Amino acid sequence: MTVETTPVIDAALARRLVDAQFPQWAGLPLRLLAPAGSDHVIYRLGEELSVRLPRHDGAIEQARKEAEWLPRLAPHLPLAVPEVVAVGEPGFGYPWPWAVSRWLDGEVATADTLSGSHETAVALAEFLTALHRIDAAAAEHLTGEPLAERDAETRSAIAEVRGTFDAAAMTELWDTALAAPGWGRPLVWFHGDFHTGNLLTTNGRLSAVIDFGELGTGDPACDLTIAFTLLSPETRATFRSALDVDDDTWTRGRGWALATGLNAYTSYAATSPRVAAQTTRQMTQALLG
């Protein structure tokens, strides 16, 4: 995906946007959340709200998508999800929609703390099971791309990391994932970006799932990426059993983990040791199965 850079996003811009469009919150302090993700600059607004400003044009649909769909999904899910309370408009040179949401307390999930937790593995499976059970018929326009759409970029990325990773093993896994039969069943909801950075914990237990910008319908294999970003081989087996994943879907899930890991690694690893470590783990675990 090609994205454009944004104007400079700083506290002064966020303050002007909030005060002009939502004067009821003009008196609330803004505090930058760091580090934030690659898609948004995030400010905490007072104690109960957050402001999310897209960094690039690849993230500009998220505010309205979450505002439309999460109120319909949330009552059926066992973990908290974002609640958008207002969608802001472009202004002061900032060109895109942005969101004000309820603040969700919690710490970002990490493999260091949760990889060995079978309780976490079951909780993840329960969340995805509940998501898959929600009727997706009204959201066919959100159908996601098939894994094969990533073929060219994934093979290019494998070539780029040759010498750092086992390119032959990556190619073998990628070929196997592409050869696996497709979903072939009714569309189901998927999160679309289900990794550790989009999970929150409270007192060591999963409490919320955030960042539904890639929310869509279709093959749920993409959400199996979490099994490789967060879990160990032992807890991954617990997750797979609890979710009751067939062999073909699991194989496609390994392909998604490889493809998304490669994309993030080649884009950000040179400048972000955190991303480098996370994606290295993701791809290594996907190769293990």
UniProtKB/TrEMBL annotation:
CDD domains: APH_ChoK_like_1 (cd05155). Keywords: Kinase, Transferase. It comes from the Bacteria. GO terms for molecular function: kinase activity. InterPro entries: AGP_Transferase, Aminoglycoside_PTrfase, Kinase-like_dom_sf. Residues 36-256 form the Aminoglycoside phosphotransferase domain. This is Aminoglycoside phosphotransferase (APT) family kinase protein. It comes from Saccharopolyspora antimicrobica.
